[in-house]
Design brief:
The chain is an alpha+beta fold. The protein is 36% helix and 25% strand. The chain folds into three domains: 5-51, Uridine Diphospho-n-acetylenolpyruvylglucosamine Reductase, domain 2, CATH 3.30.43; 57-172, Uridine Diphospho-n-acetylenolpyruvylglucosamine Reductase, domain 3, CATH 3.30.465; 182-288, 2-Layer Sandwich (Enolase-like, domain 1), CATH 3.30.390.50. The strands form four sheets. A five-stranded antiparallel beta sheet has the order 4-5-10-6-7. It has a four-stranded antiparallel beta sheet with strand order 11-12-13-14. The protein has a three-stranded parallel beta sheet with strand order 1-3-2, with helices on one face. The radius of gyration is 19 Å and the shape is globular.
């Protein structure tokens, strides 16, 4: 491992100033769970790491809103989010997803902002947050931005974040009237990277799907919102026949890829089946509330 500079600013503005450089090997460091692996394997050699551990404490806060919305600081650890009573109450699917996200040792260290900024298409949080209609807030040399989760990822391990631009918080709107589910399909161990991750959220009115969100990851190069599948669901009566049609629409729309966890054709078949199951789980969860 090469030598590098390590700085620990105490203000977010100072961190951004350290990161505002043309040197692409200068990188922010929050939990470091993915970054350290990249460094150990010589995939990435930084000239400077800018630790975010000492920045203002409120960037780790989880704050419920008066209307049922939720603000999660980018420096909140995954374990903190998993066990937060406010997350369990206001966005329970997010808490459930954490239980199979890597392992507890990683969740104790990893931060949600770094998890998203890493751009890994195999992660469980992006499709889940997309289904929950979440946005991220960023701060960088050019100021603040608000970005929908589905617009954050531009390619395989790529995001739209600029040099020196940091995620500061995740904004989850009220889930009142909505029910959601995330299906993670692994081909090896239970907590392995998925061959497919599919997340859904639905809002029904009188047995009809009034609105919905469908997102897929892992089987695709980046998080993808499946708008054709959503269109197949909106305005339709809840039922298996509609779920099957949505599965076919999703299979036609998603650009699945081959990798060590399965062929593109296999993942397309997984999507057909597990979208239907995720929809039924979300509907059942809504009935039980």
């Amino acid at each position: 491992m090469n030598t590098f500079e390590f700085v620990e600013p105490r203000l977010l503005t100072e961190a951004i100033a350290f990161l505002d450089t043309d040197d692409s090997s200068v990188r922010a460091f929050s939990g470091g769970t993915a970054l350290m692996l990249m460094m150990k394997s010589a995939v990435f050699s930084p000239s400077r790491l800018v630790s975010l551990r000492q920045v203002e404490a409120h960037y780790s806060d989880i704050v419920p809103g008066s209307n049922g919305d939720l603000t999660i600081g980018a420096m909140a650890s995954l374990s903190t989010i998993e066990n937060s009573p406010d997350v369990v109450r206001l966005a329970p699917t997010l808490s459930k997803v954490m239980k199979r996200l890597s392992n507890v040792r990683v969740r104790n260290v990893a931060r949600i902002g770094g998890n998203l900024a890493h751009g890994d298409p195999h992660m469980d949080l992006p499709p889940t947050l997309c289904a929950l209609r979440a946005n991220i807030l960023t701060q960088g040399p050019a100021g603040q931005r608000r970005i929908a989760i589905e617009d954050l990822f531009s390619g395989y391990y790529e995001t739209v974040l600029g040099q020196g631009e940091l995620i500061t918080e995740i904004a989850v709107p009220s889930q009142t009237g909505w029910s959601s589910s995330y299906n993670k399909i692994t081909t090896r161990t239970l907590d392995d990277w998925p061959a497919l991750g599919v997340a859904v959220s639905v809002r029904t009115d009188g047995g009809v799907i009034a609105d919905c969100r469908v997102a897929v990851s892992a089987a695709t190069e980046k998080l993808t919102r499946l708008t054709a599948a959503e269109a197949a669901l909106r305005g339709q009566p809840v039922g298996n026949a509609v779920f099957l049609r949505a599965g076919e629409a999703a299979a036609a729309e998603a650009e699945t890829i081959d990798d060590a966890r399965g062929s593109a054709a296999y993942k397309t078949d997984l999507l057909r089946v597990h979208l239907r199951r995720a929809l039924q789980t979300a509907i059942d969860a809504g009935v039980q509330r």
